[in-house]
Write a structure and sequence with these properties.
about 800 residues, about 15% strand, oxidoreductase
Length: about 800
């Protein structure tokens, strides 16, 4: 077991002195970064700035107990911490401020996140995992306040899992679970539900987690007393304080942000509790100051009175730290020893300013060099076109007169020039066009890559393995297929675990996990509380630490509780780090056609639109669902898999190769061939579409039925367009609301696949009513497309073109 900070602090006075001065130096460097960063914004060299000034001392103390293998999940105020643990340099700080798109210069996000959002790179260039135990880890920050909390729970729970779960390569992710997950949050954001849900879950699960609350008394301009039931969050949390002998609750420590010795003591105790006893700890850091206010978008003088501003000036953490250093003395062997004199601290202050200025200058020069090189590679080629169109010189002059130039100005110049010379066939224009294609590809990579995995393990690369059936293959309930497939999965992949409401003891509400907890234990097959946001958070955090979690959201309707985390966090992990981090969590849920306002919704369009970056898989039965689980466990993409709620008791033939067969993503399946019309659908609606297709056959209409299977990615080989080319008619049938998923599918087929070229009739969408289904027994029939609806509306298409052959029904 790793030792803690408390157990290792037996050092000489000289070492103690050196540590203090190093902390003071780092604190001053961080402060000067904040000061200069603000000036860079106000002088127009950067767009926006939000800084960590005032929080230097508590972050210095927190960093002392942060070990290799530990993880932080925080928000945009932790620059001092990132600096101390070598996740940030002066140069990379300013590179991020300027939004430099170089991964080498701005490794946290390559210009994709505003400043103050930190991350370490967990992945090698090929997308494989680094040895996370050989580095201090920061999971990529997000801006939505408290949005980082659910993920924190998973990062901490991974340590608990690793105490009992090991597998080949697990030493890269944990030393038998001795790591801590550190979270940081502003005091105002503790009013958010994600904070309370996360802390509640952590106290129930007893995971090694330290949450630091930076309490500066305000949420932007709103004082604390208007944020919560009580101004003192530690007082509010007093009921969470664990009692002796009980395995619930947390430890709560309150400490002043300007009291350096007390901060060291507080974090030493917090680490001891978390690392040795595996309990969550809240460190409430009070009396935090904010010397420059909330951000560069406003001044705190507008909402803080003179007394408050005067107090903040007097109790600035670095000022109090300096006073403490100058007042410190101790007698050792009859000789008075001090840490430093005024002159020495002044020299450190001056050196910090020089270091920061030098780093800023280098970052700016590197950033400008990229722009200059782009312009120099393009301008001569544009100049060569002046003789071909008189407008070109005007465009060049307009560009030259710009005081501040960005990449977009160079591209605007190229594109205007190409537009002006359209129709011209010259070597000069061809050169410019070639250069445009070359530089555009570079910027496309800079700004649009890594929304999905680009590694060899991306889901699209998983080869299809068809289910194998034999004479002995049994017809069983669909839930048995998925259950037995999970059994094979847990046996094959020791790093796989599943958790959710009712997932453990009773084997989920539909018995798809029946007997799995008894066989594999309550760590790998676990029940959770009713708290969807943190169920997702558990999945994200554990996936970031090398486990393969399946986070179960009991019903599709309740996925809305965790949609914020799916959209803001999970979907953007690879993108916002430009391939530096990944979280291949599988979200298991069930939904679609039954009755009831909150048990048969199909909010697929919301998921599609808000969660680009997550695969959306919609199997029509439980065998297909099982195949998708087998596929995704070979992939490093995150995915949501929607099982059909009405399919668990329907009979399916069980494949002989459970745990092995796969369903390819982005691959449609033609389940009925036809020549007159293409019917496109997915999920539970497929069964009803097949019924309607049989009815249409009796009416002389040959319908081809296509099961989409995978909404994201969608029909990668454009097979639907080939079907429409044969039938010349297209109908999209969906149980989402009008203009929902059907609109997405239609756009993909008509626009991306260009299938409009083959249509002899208007494309038709048949969707659900805009309300959710009623619970009444016929709620499904009257709320969502029925077989009767489909037959009548598709028949009407043919009535329009040939009323004699297809006379009107009504």
């Amino acid at each position: 077991m790793q030792t803690t900070y408390i157990e290792t602090q037996q050092i000489s006075f000289q070492d103690f002195k050196n540590q203090i001065l190093e902390d003071y130096k780092l604190g001053r460097i961080s402060r000067e970064m904040s000061y200069l960063g603000r000036r860079e914004v106000l002088t127009g060299k950067a767009k926006f700035g939000i800084f960590g000034d005032g929080k230097e001392l508590p972050q210095l103390a927190m960093a002392k107990v942060f070990r290799n293998g530990d993880f932080r999940s925080g928000y945009y105020r932790d620059q001092t911490f990132a600096l101390v643990v070598d996740a940030l340099s002066v140069e990379s700080f300013f590179a991020q401020l300027y939004a430099d798109t170089s991964v080498e210069r701005e490794p946290a996000s390559a210009g994709r996140q505003m400043n103050g959002h930190f991350a370490t790179r967990s992945l090698n260039e090929d997308g494989s995992w680094k040895d996370l135990m050989a580095q201090k880890n920061i999971s990529s920050d997000i801006s939505p306040t408290a949005g980082q909390m659910p993920r924190l729970l998973g990062l901490a729970q991974a340590s608990k899992v690793y105490k009992t779960v090991q597998f080949e390569g697990s030493e890269k992710f944990s030393d038998k679970g001795n790591e801590i997950a550190f979270g940081t949050i502003g005091d105002a954001s503790t009013a958010e539900g994600h904070f309370w849900e996360t802390l509640n879950a952590a106290c129930a699960l007893q995971v090694p987690m330290i949450v630091s609350i930076w309490d500066d008394g305000y949420g932007i301009s709103v004082p604390t007393m208007k944020q919560r039931a009580k101004a003192d969050i530690a007082e509010m949390l007093s009921g969470f304080q664990r009692k002796e002998g009980e395995n619930q609750g947390c430890e709560i420590i309150q400490v002043k942000a300007w009291d350096y010795p007390a901060l060291l003591d507080a974090y030493a105790k917090a680490e001891h509790f978390a690392r040795t006893e595996s309990v969550p700890v809240v460190v409430h850091v009070i009396e935090v100051t904010q010397p420059q206010g909330h951000s560069t978008s406003g001044s705190h003088e507008r909402y803080k009175n003179e007394d408050r501003l005067s107090w903040e000036a007097d109790f600035d953490g670095l000022l109090k730290f300096r006073e403490w250093i100058l007042n410190y003395s101790i007698e050792i062997e009859g000789k008075e020893e001090i840490i430093a004199a005024v002159e020495e601290l002044d020299a450190i202050d001056e050196e910090a300013k020089k270091k920061v200025k030098a780093g800023q200058k280098l970052a700016w020069e590197n950033y400008q060099k990229t722009l200059t090189e782009l312009a120099f590679s393009v301008l001569p080629l544009v100049e060569n076109l002046k003789g071909q169109n008189s407008e070109i010189e005007t465009y060049i002059n307009q560009y030259t007169k710009l005081v501040s130039k960005a990449k977009k100005d160079v591209f605007h110049l190229i594109r205007k020039s190409l537009l002006a010379t359209r129709g011209t066939n010259s070597a000069e224009r061809t050169q410019l066009m070639n250069k445009y294609n070359e530089v555009f590809e570079v910027e496309k990579d800079n700004y649009s890559s890594h929304l999905y995995s680009q590694s060899q393990w991306k889901a699209e690369n998983v080869k299809e393995v068809k289910p194998i059936y034999s004479e002995t293959s049994e017809d069983v309930d669909g839930r048995v297929v998925v259950r037995n497939n999970f059994d094979k999965i847990f046996e094959k992949y020791p790093q796989t675990l599943v958790f959710g409401e009712d997932a453990g003891n009773i084997g989920d509400v539909n018995q798809g996990l029946e007997g799995m907890q008894e066989k594999y234990g309550d760590i790998r097959v676990a029940d959770t509380g009713i708290r969807e946001a943190t169920i997702l958070g558990q999945g994200i955090g554990m996936a970031m630490r090398g486990l393969r979690p399946i986070a179960e959201i009991q019903y599709l309707d309740y996925i809305l509780y965790c949609l914020q985390g799916m959209s803001d966090d999970l979907a953007t992990v690879q993108y916002r780090t430009k391939g530096g981090q990944k979280a291949p969590v599988i979200i298991r849920t069930r939904g679609h056609r039954l009755e009831g306002v909150w048990h048969s919704g199909s909010p697929m369009a919301g998921i599609l639109n808000l969660s680009k970056g997550i695969l959306v898989l919609v199997p029509r039965n439980l065998t297909k669902a099982a195949g998708f689980y087998n596929t995704m466990l070979q992939s490093d993409d995150p995915a949501v898999i929607v099982e059909c709620l009405n399919g668990y008791r329907l009979k399916e033939k069980q494949p002989d190769n459970l745990g092995e067969f796969t369903v390819p993503v982005g691959k449609i399946e033609v389940t009925k061939e036809g020549k007159d019309v293409t019917l496109v659908t997915y999920g539970s609606t497929w069964r009803i579409v097949m019924e309607a297709a049989e009815e249409l056959e009796k009416l002389g209409i040959s319908a081809e039925v296509i099961d989409v299977q995978s909404l994201i990615p969608f029909d990668l080989t454009h097979e639907i367009a080939e079907s429409v080319k044969r039938t010349n008619r297209l109908v999209v049938i969906d149980e989402d609301v009008e203009g929902g998923t059907s609109a997405f599918i239609l756009q993909q087929i008509l626009e991306k696949q260009k299938a409009f070229r083959f249509l002899d009739s208007d494309p038709l969408t048949i969707a659900a009513n805009d309300h959710r289904p009623a619970y009444a027994s016929d709620g499904d029939y009257f709320s969502k497309p029925s077989s009767d609806d489909m037959v009548e509306r598709i028949y009407a298409l043919f009535n329009e073109t040939n009323p004699e052959k297809y006379p009107s029904i009504f």
